[in-house]
């Protein structure tokens, strides 16, 4: 498994809110405990909201609000896209300005002694291709609101027909929670791995066992359902 894939798998495991021991994570991913410690350090400095420490365990919680502002998903998306674009540019003056803006955003984050430190704008970022997600977010949000069935084609050429239920944001990585009609189970799909989004005819209606509330009651997805 590539390092970026392992880091994403860790985020998917941690976001259930439960405490996970490094030893269990290492066994699950077939790596050493030392590797898990290094991966956790990378996730923390990358802005992923990881909580915990060596010897105790780790978990993660998403947060998308900055006091005194309450940000909408669209506003958060605009901030993220703008800072990411400037941060990877060759204009050193603008890059410095973007870093300064990021620091100011960090400065007004709520002080939470129970939360691991995190940086919003510029950290060591292991998911450099995440900007690919932005082009699909408007279509996915619209489909969620309209209960529109979708056909998704992924980077690995696989195709899935889904009922989109919810967009999640985890440390600059967007995921789509969906009921997949292809695999007949809930899936948490990386939006940056989606290449094309096609609208399928007909809207879906809520069915028991396939609703967002049913997904939420599961706590976390089985590993087979993660991309």
Short description:
The protein has seven helices and seven strands; from the N terminus they run αααββαααβββββα. The chain has 227 residues and is of the alpha+beta class.
Mind sketching the topology for me?
Elements: H1 3-14, H2 22-29, H3 33-45, E1 50-53, E2 57-60, H4 73-87, H5 92-107, H6 137-146, E3 148-154, E4 159-170, E5 173-180, E6 185-190, E7 194-203, H7 212-218
Antiparallel strand pairs: 1-2, 3-4, 3-7, 4-5, 5-6
What does this 3D model show about the protein?
The protein is of the alpha+beta class. It folds into three domains: 3-60, Winged helix-like DNA-binding domain superfamily/Winged helix DNA-binding domain (Arc Repressor Mutant, subunit A, Orthogonal Bundle), CATH 1.10.10; 73-127, no CATH class; 130-225, SH3 type barrels. 36% of the residues lie in helices and 22% in strands. It has helices spanning 3-14, 22-29, 33-45, 73-87, 92-107, 137-146, 212-218, and strands at 50-53, 57-60, 148-154, 159-170, 173-180, 185-190, 194-203. The protein has a five-stranded antiparallel sheet, covered by helices on one side. The model is unreliable at 63-67, 109-127 and 220-227 (pLDDT under 50).
Give the strand tally: 7
Instruction: State Rg.
Output: 18 Å
Distance between the termini: 13 Å
Strand order of the largest sheet: 6-5-4-3-7
CATH topology of the largest domain: SH3 type barrels
User: Quick one: overall form?
Assistant: globular
Number of helices: 7
Give the averaged pLDDT, no decimals. 76
Largest β sheet strand count, sense and barrel closure? 5 strands, antiparallel
The share of residues in extended strands comes to 15-25%
Give the name of the CATH architecture of the largest domain.
Roll
Order of helices and strands: HHHEEHHHEEEEEH
Number of domains: 3
Percentage of helical residues? 25-40%
Low-confidence stretches: 63-67, 109-127, 220-227
CATH class of the largest domain: Mainly Beta
